[in-house]
Amino acid sequence: MDNNRLAELLFPNINTTPEEMEARFPRRTLPEGAKVTRFAPSPTGFVHFGGLFPTTVAERLAHQSGGVLYLRIEDTDAKREVAGAAEALIRTLSVYGIDFDEGAILGDDGKVSDKGIYGPYKQSLRGEIYQTFAKQLVKEGKAYPCFTTEEELEELQAVNKKEEIKNTDWQAEAEKRRAEMLARREFTIEEVEAHIGAGDPFVLRILADGDPEKKIRFTDLVKGNLEVPENDEDFVLLKSDGIPTYHFAHAVDDHLMGTTHVIRGEEWLPSLPKHLQLFRYLGFKTPKYMHIAQIMKLDENGNKKKLSKRDMGANMDDYTGMGYCPEAVCEYVMTLLNSNYEEWRMQNPDKSYRDFPFNIKKMSVSGCLFDFDKLNDVSKNVISKMDAKSVTEKVTAWALEFDREFGEELARDKEFTEKIFAIGRGGKKPRKDLATWADAKPYMSFFFDKFFALECDYDEKYDRNDIKAILEGFVKTYDESDDMNAWFDKIKALGEPLGYASDMKAYKASPESFKGSVADVSMFLRLAVTGKLNSPDMYAVMQILGKEKIAERIGAMLEKI
Ligand code: GLU
Known about the structure:
Elements: H1 3-10, H2 18-24, E1 36-39, H3 49-64, E2 68-71, H4 85-95, E3 102-106, E4 112-115, H5 127-139, E5 143-146, H6 150-166, H7 170-185, H8 189-197, E6 203-206, E7 215-220, E8 224-229, E9 236-238, H9 246-256, E10 261-265, H10 272-282, E11 288-292, E12 296-298, E13 304-306, H11 316-322, H12 326-337, H13 341-347, H14 372-384, H15 388-402, H16 404-412, H17 414-422, H18 440-444, H19 464-477, H20 484-495, E14 500-501, H21 504-509, E15 516-517, H22 518-530, H23 538-560
Parallel strand pairs: 1-2, 2-3, 10-11, 14-15
Antiparallel strand pairs: 3-4, 5-6, 6-9, 7-8, 12-13
Helix pairs in contact: 1-5, 1-8, 3-12, 9-10, 12-14, 15-16, 15-17, 19-20, 19-22, 19-23, 22-23
The structure holds glutamic acid (GLU).
The site of glutamic acid has 7 residues, from strand 10.
């Protein structure tokens, strides 16, 4: 076979050479050890939690090493493309601290445009580049055309699938496929000429040289040392529209764009033999690979299963509505990514997660477990360290978007709102009441008359006259200028003559000698003033509400009982 003639027949319009492509996309000059990583989404939908995960690894490794993180849009499957998905992906990732140095970025007009010299960063615009390398492979006898039409192929696949189900004789099946494949390799240049002359579409296949009995040793930076079989499948490089398959585009793009570390989901591991073969055929240096395990969750029966697209927590866009702050989500992702992160965090409570020395070796080889309880714990910690001003701003902004009525209350008097969020904040052991901004309403909306409501009533066991006496007594003696001790002494003094122990030790020693304790007395006040049995520190609450409002609420309660 005259391979040069074949190449000209198949790619008459390609006049560029691989050397020219190499010159167009020069090797990067970066400091020693700098890593070049990328996120390479197909614009088919939202950012999945399982996508943020490898992308955070890519971001950390690039930026921690003084390297480059770039974004490549893998839009080779036009049928699955969703309009606007690329723009949405970029926006969402940016919320979670993933900003790209290069690649497809959002312009001021909200549209995707290119930044950097390795573009176009949209695969659909790189046809000439792929075809240049494809032509070269044909010239070298490493790829060949296959004129079986897409419909015929689909039919064949459908038949094969059915056969697979029926046919338990795997060996016979494998041999049949092998024979089919070998038959595809047999053709004459005249046949190709006739097809091309008739305008028949073709796909370009690799001429696989592998022997699946033989194994390739390979080190994945996450999975460790692996042995994968050589590839013997003549897989498709270019589809009939000249658009590459993932495999071919991956090899060409990651080579030309200078990716040092390919970080992707482990679902690509079975394709690795194809990729290793391609890099070898093309004469490219193989990048380092990191195959990241799928994110798992526990199902109702406590079994681990993949976090699927439809699961709660999968779509990163949902987190905003749920009221999670991005800082907390990033922090949570870090705890999942590196086993020593939490220890580091304890030693470095005030540092940014970006100061953590991220280590590939500390990554989990099997799937990490996604768990809302853990996320909430992490989030409470993160929010507890924020100051009142910033919590006020964030909660207000969130509420204005997702709970307008509440947001308007918060925004009415910023100073007042900030005082509320200042309760228990700033000390060594800050309160950890909020996991999400949505938690703010049940936590503190009682400060606003609009949302104040009695959530329950006093237990039957309490003598109504005692409650009345305490509430009335409190209003009479309450003095805003009392410090916390003086305030609390008054509360104790109200309960004592009625049989409520003011000394908790004495009460615990013989509870039967008392009607209750100062804890019950406080609860009488708490319920009247906040409508709840649990609330932030009552002294602080009362300081913020003021004497008048306290008297008003207690008065209403007195009328009720
Ligand atoms: N477009 C591929 C995907 O979305 C990218 C995989 C990769 O990172 O190489 O799965």
